[in-house]
Amino acid sequence: MKNVMMAVLVIVIHAKRFEFSPKEIHLKRGEPVTIQLVSDDRPHGLSSKPLQLELDGNDEVTITPTVAGTFKAICDHYCGSGHGNMKLTFVVED
Length: 94
What we know:
Elements: E1 9-16, E2 19-21, E3 24-28, E4 33-39, E5 45-48, E6 53-56, E7 59-63, E8 69-74, E9 87-93
Parallel strand pairs: 1-4, 3-9
Antiparallel strand pairs: 1-2, 4-7, 5-6, 8-9
Protein backbone atom coordinates (compact mmCIF):
# COMPACT_ATOMS: atom_id res chain seq x y z
CA MET A 1 0.00 0.00 0.00
CA LYS A 2 1.32 3.47 -0.90
CA ASN A 3 1.50 6.28 1.60
CA VAL A 4 -0.73 9.09 0.44
CA MET A 5 0.05 12.54 1.82
CA MET A 6 -2.72 15.09 1.91
CA ALA A 7 -1.86 18.71 1.35
CA VAL A 8 -2.73 20.79 4.38
CA LEU A 9 -4.55 24.04 3.70
CA VAL A 10 -2.55 27.10 4.79
CA ILE A 11 -4.41 30.25 5.83
CA VAL A 12 -2.41 33.44 6.28
CA ILE A 13 -3.87 36.01 8.67
CA HIS A 14 -2.43 39.52 8.65
CA ALA A 15 -2.59 41.53 11.87
CA LYS A 16 -2.17 45.28 12.18
CA ARG A 17 -3.59 47.94 14.46
CA PHE A 18 -6.51 47.24 14.99
CA GLU A 19 -7.69 44.53 12.66
CA PHE A 20 -7.16 41.06 11.30
CA SER A 21 -7.40 40.30 7.60
CA PRO A 22 -9.40 38.30 6.70
CA LYS A 23 -12.05 39.00 9.33
CA GLU A 24 -13.83 35.66 8.82
CA ILE A 25 -12.35 32.25 8.05
CA HIS A 26 -14.28 29.11 7.09
CA LEU A 27 -12.86 25.71 8.04
CA LYS A 28 -14.06 22.10 7.71
CA ARG A 29 -14.51 19.96 10.80
CA GLY A 30 -11.96 17.13 10.87
CA GLU A 31 -9.65 18.67 8.24
CA PRO A 32 -6.23 19.89 9.35
CA VAL A 33 -5.31 23.48 8.53
CA THR A 34 -2.18 25.50 9.14
CA ILE A 35 -2.85 28.99 10.48
CA GLN A 36 -0.07 31.53 9.90
CA LEU A 37 -0.09 34.86 11.71
CA VAL A 38 1.80 37.75 10.13
CA SER A 39 2.19 40.87 12.27
CA ASP A 40 2.43 43.77 9.82
CA ASP A 41 3.22 46.65 12.17
CA ARG A 42 4.04 45.46 15.71
CA PRO A 43 3.75 42.25 17.75
CA HIS A 44 0.22 40.84 17.82
CA GLY A 45 -1.19 37.57 19.05
CA LEU A 46 -4.13 35.40 18.04
CA SER A 47 -6.08 33.37 20.57
CA SER A 48 -9.18 31.18 20.28
CA LYS A 49 -9.58 28.87 23.26
CA PRO A 50 -12.35 26.68 21.69
CA LEU A 51 -10.03 25.92 18.75
CA GLN A 52 -6.98 25.54 21.01
CA LEU A 53 -5.29 28.23 18.92
CA GLU A 54 -2.52 30.37 20.42
CA LEU A 55 -0.14 32.30 18.17
CA ASP A 56 2.37 35.01 19.03
CA GLY A 57 3.89 37.43 16.53
CA ASN A 58 4.94 35.85 13.26
CA ASP A 59 4.07 32.25 14.02
CA GLU A 60 2.12 29.27 12.68
CA VAL A 61 0.33 26.23 14.01
CA THR A 62 -1.57 23.32 12.46
CA ILE A 63 -4.94 22.50 14.02
CA THR A 64 -7.76 20.09 13.24
CA PRO A 65 -11.15 21.49 14.28
CA THR A 66 -13.21 18.80 16.00
CA VAL A 67 -16.47 20.69 16.59
CA ALA A 68 -18.61 22.64 14.15
CA GLY A 69 -19.67 26.15 15.15
CA THR A 70 -18.75 29.81 15.13
CA PHE A 71 -15.78 30.82 17.26
CA LYS A 72 -14.29 34.22 18.04
CA ALA A 73 -10.56 34.88 18.12
CA ILE A 74 -8.90 37.90 19.66
CA CYS A 75 -5.57 39.69 19.66
CA ASP A 76 -4.00 38.80 22.99
CA HIS A 77 -1.15 41.34 22.86
CA TYR A 78 -2.13 44.86 23.85
CA CYS A 79 -1.58 47.05 20.77
CA GLY A 80 -3.20 50.37 21.63
CA SER A 81 -6.57 52.06 22.12
CA GLY A 82 -8.44 49.91 19.56
CA HIS A 83 -7.06 46.61 20.87
CA GLY A 84 -10.36 45.52 22.46
CA ASN A 85 -12.09 45.51 19.06
CA MET A 86 -9.42 43.43 17.32
CA LYS A 87 -11.29 40.20 16.61
CA LEU A 88 -11.94 37.69 13.86
CA THR A 89 -14.40 34.84 13.42
CA PHE A 90 -13.74 31.19 12.59
CA VAL A 91 -16.70 29.28 11.15
CA VAL A 92 -16.19 25.51 11.34
CA GLU A 93 -18.58 23.63 9.04
CA ASP A 94 -19.46 19.92 8.86
